[in-house]
TrEMBL record, chain A:
<keyword id="KW-0472">Membrane</keyword>
<protein>
    <submittedName>
        <fullName>Putative tricarboxylic transport membrane protein</fullName>
    </submittedName>
</protein>
<dbReference type="Pfam" id="PF01970">
    <property type="entry name" value="TctA"/>
</dbReference>
<feature type="transmembrane region" description="Helical">
    <location>
        <begin position="166"/>
        <end position="185"/>
    </location>
</feature>
<keyword id="KW-1133">Transmembrane helix</keyword>
<feature type="transmembrane region" description="Helical">
    <location>
        <begin position="317"/>
        <end position="341"/>
    </location>
</feature>
<feature type="transmembrane region" description="Helical">
    <location>
        <begin position="353"/>
        <end position="375"/>
    </location>
</feature>
<dbReference type="InterPro" id="IPR002823">
    <property type="entry name" value="DUF112_TM"/>
</dbReference>
<keyword id="KW-0812">Transmembrane</keyword>
Automatic annotation (TrEMBL), chain B:
<keyword id="KW-0812">Transmembrane</keyword>
<feature type="transmembrane region" description="Helical">
    <location>
        <begin position="35"/>
        <end position="54"/>
    </location>
</feature>
<dbReference type="Pfam" id="PF07331">
    <property type="entry name" value="TctB"/>
</dbReference>
<feature type="transmembrane region" description="Helical">
    <location>
        <begin position="120"/>
        <end position="143"/>
    </location>
</feature>
<protein>
    <submittedName>
        <fullName>Tripartite tricarboxylate transporter TctB family protein</fullName>
    </submittedName>
</protein>
<keyword id="KW-1133">Transmembrane helix</keyword>
<keyword id="KW-0472">Membrane</keyword>
<feature type="transmembrane region" description="Helical">
    <location>
        <begin position="74"/>
        <end position="91"/>
    </location>
</feature>
<dbReference type="InterPro" id="IPR009936">
    <property type="entry name" value="DUF1468"/>
</dbReference>
Length: 501, 152
């Protein structure tokens, strides 16, 4: 209780409220812009939180995260193009409704559903995470190895159409993470004699390169190829009534629970959660035939679910140090620059920061709900900013951000190199998220694996005889092979359908 | 995507072999972990080649008219941006962010076909001043100062 009271006092200061306000506005604007992702928005801001106190820094990053997921719905509804992948399901009914002249109502429902989804997941996060962290305090090296391997195992589901590419990216990330001094014996590995590499590649320039610089190259490439799109005028349209919102509450609550649960499972993310919630909304609806043509429940469900993922994804991050999705992997960078290592000890040593984060998430969700109802027409204006201007500006922010962490020009070169790698990988359909997951979890896995072997005198059975370790390793095997099995089943179904036809 | 997959796999195999043989020079303790993943990456690259031969259309993407969309890595605008960026970082290291950035941004915008001169200058100068004011002065985040070191 004391931690909660301190959190409320911490967050309700002018400084932190201003930070939440800025983060919410910045997040909505970045989420609005097609092609900008929550990941990029958070990655580019991390270096600028360096001079803030830890609580303010992480509050800013999480506000950007939540608000950018909501922002994605604005372009989905107005342009038929989701601002973030998580907004893809919102397009299905959001855009038809907008075409039918219901723009104000649908934007309002999207704001309320997103806000409520976020609040419900924040409540679940703040009630379950401390309990789980308490359990995780008993973990030793073997358990941490198993948990890290479980986190890494999701790379097989991140490869898109070709899981092998996701695995190659993951192995590449693990190798990149081995550059620097060996964690146990201190032997320099792959440093090429460069003292700057003794500590390995700095995480933040790598993240900025992979997600922000590569995105700016994509924007630069798209210059001259953009489709002409007209943004609908939203200034004169009505808002949803209280009665309309009230009717949607069961749908919003169900979708929020789906989103939170899917968010907890590492590697799944916001877009599948939105589609699962959408399908459930169709199943429970009395008018399922209206979905896809302009049904308001088809907007409320994915919006509640994709924002509920935000709280769910923070549960494995804060309790075990395992990122639930790409954005939370980036958030680890935000915690690390303040010397905070996510995991159960975070609750013991920095409980004030964690509870301030919990409380700030609720404020952020309320704030963007209010903004969404009141000022959407101004956010819609952002959609008119052309890629030719955005690309270079993001590139400049990437350079300043990479430099700011250690005042190091070397980090700017690292950022540029990973920017080019990220751009090439995207063009080749090779996902970049596995690289980040592996860079973060690879060193934890290596260090705990070797420590566990030292403790057991080199006996590998230590990973089988400890129950929690064995369970996590089993989960890792299941999570690793699931996409391959799914592909196999789908291929077989396709072949059967072909032969029957 | 077929030919790109072969080239990509080839580069990854070379990279994996480099990591593996370089790892031979480390002490046994330090080398085992990266060498294990180097071999894994090598095997996966071979698997990608085999998979591409067996399923050449796995990643085929089509447009609205059902025509195949081929990936295009080389783009002269991106290539020019990276080349300019390399030059910019070299010069900025010596002269500083504030003095170099407006010229770099103006050149970059020009290279990527932005031809509205007034807006081009406004964006170049405005972005530089905006970043300096917000990050250096408001947030206290250092930006490369070069010749202007200790001026502010």
């Amino acid at each position: 209780m004391e931690l909660w009271l301190n959190a409320v006092a911490d967050v309700l200061t002018i400084t932190n409220l201003s930070i939440i306000l800025f983060g919410t506005l910045f997040g909505i604007i970045m989420g609005c812009l097609p092609g900008m992702s929550s990941t990029m928005s958070v990655a580019i801001i991390i270096p600028f939180t360096f001079t803030m106190d830890p609580a303010s820094g992480i509050i800013l990053l999480s506000a950007i995260y939540c608000a950018s997921v909501y922002g994605g719905s604005i372009s989905a509804i107005l342009l038929n193009t989701p601002g973030t992948p998580a907004g893809a399901a919102t397009v299905l009914d959001g855009y038809p409704l907008s075409q039918q002249g219901e723009t104000g109502k649908v934007l309002g429902v999207s704001a309320v559903a997103s806000g409520l989804g976020g609040i419900i997941s924040a409540i679940i996060l703040s009630t379950t995470a401390p309990f789980l962290a308490d359990q995780a305090l008993r973990f030793g090296a073997a358990e941490y190895f198993a948990v890290a391997i479980f986190g890494i195992s999701v790379v097989s589901s991140l490869g898109g159409k070709n899981p092998i590419k996701g695995l190659i990216a993951g192995a590449f990330g693990v190798l990149i993470a081995t550059v620097g001094l060996d964690p146990i014996v201190g032997y320099p590995r792959y440093t090429m004699g460069l003292p700057e590499l003794n500590g390995g590649f700095s995480l933040i320039p790598v993240l900025i390169g992979l997600f922000s610089a590569s995105q700016s190259f994509m924007l630069i490439k798209s210059v001259g190829q953009e489709k002409k799109q007209t943004v609908k005028d939203v200034s004169s349209h009505s808002r949803p009534s209280f009665g309309e919102i009230f009717k949607l509450l069961p749908n919003i609550s169900r979708s929020s629970l789906i989103g939170t649960f899917i968010g907890i499972i590492p590697g799944i993310g916001g877009d599948p959660a939105a589609f699962v919630a959408y399908n459930e909304a169709v199943r429970w609806s009395k008018r399922p035939d209206q979905f896809g043509k302009g049904e308001i429940g088809g907007v409320a469900a994915p919006e509640a679910a994709n924002n509920a993922v935000t709280g769910g994804a923070l549960i494995p991050l804060l309790t075990l140090g395992i990122p639930g999705n790409t954005v939370t992997a980036i958030l680890i960078g935000g915690l690390l620059i303040h010397g905070l290592r996510p995991g159960p000890m975070l609750f013991e040593e920095n409980g004030d920061v964690v509870y301030a984060l919990f409380f700030s998430l609720m404020i952020t969700n309320i704030l963007f709900m209010a903004f969404g109802l009141a000022f959407t027409k101004y956010f819609a204006a952002v959609l008119k900013v052309p890629a030719v201007i955005l690309g270079p500006i993001i590139l400049m922010l990437s350079i300043v951000g990479a430099f700011a962490i250690q005042n190091s020009y070397f980090d700017i070169w690292v950022m540029l190199a990973f920017g080019v790698i990220g751009y090439i990988f995207r063009q080749l359909n090779v996902p970049t998220t596995p690289i980040v997951l592996a860079i973060i979890l690879g060193p934890i896995a290596e260090e705990s694996f070797r420590q566990a072997l030292l403790q057991s005198g080199g006996e590998l059975t230590i990973f089988m005889t400890r129950p929690i370790t064995a369970v996590f390793l089993l989960l890792a095997v299941i999570s690793f092979f699931t996409p391959f099995v799914r592909n196999y089943i789908q291929n077989n179904k396709g072949k059967k359908a072909d032969t029957q036809a | 995507m077929r030919s790109y997959n072969f080239i990509f796999s080839g580069i990854i195999i070379i990279l994996a072999l480099t990591f593996y043989f370089w790892g031979n020079a480390f002490s046994a303790d330090a080398g085992q972990w990266p060498q294990f993943f180097a071999i894994t990456m090598l095997l996966l690259s071979v698997l990608l080649i085999v998979d591409t031969v067996i399923h050449p259309d796995r990643e085929k993407e089509t447009d609205e008219e059902n025509k195949e969309i081929k990936p295009r890595i080389y783009d002269h605008k991106v290539f020019a941006s990276v080349a300019l960026l390399i030059l910019y970082i070299f010069i900025m290291e010596r002269i500083g962010f504030l003095l170099t950035t407006p010229f770099f941004l103006a050149l970059l915008l020009w290279f990527i076909q932005y031809r509205q001169k007034g807006k081009l200058i406004a964006v170049s100068v405005g972005t530089t001043i905006g970043i300096t004011v917000v990050f250096q002065f408001l947030l206290g985040v250092p930006i490369p100062q070069g010749l202007l070191e200790n001026w502010f």
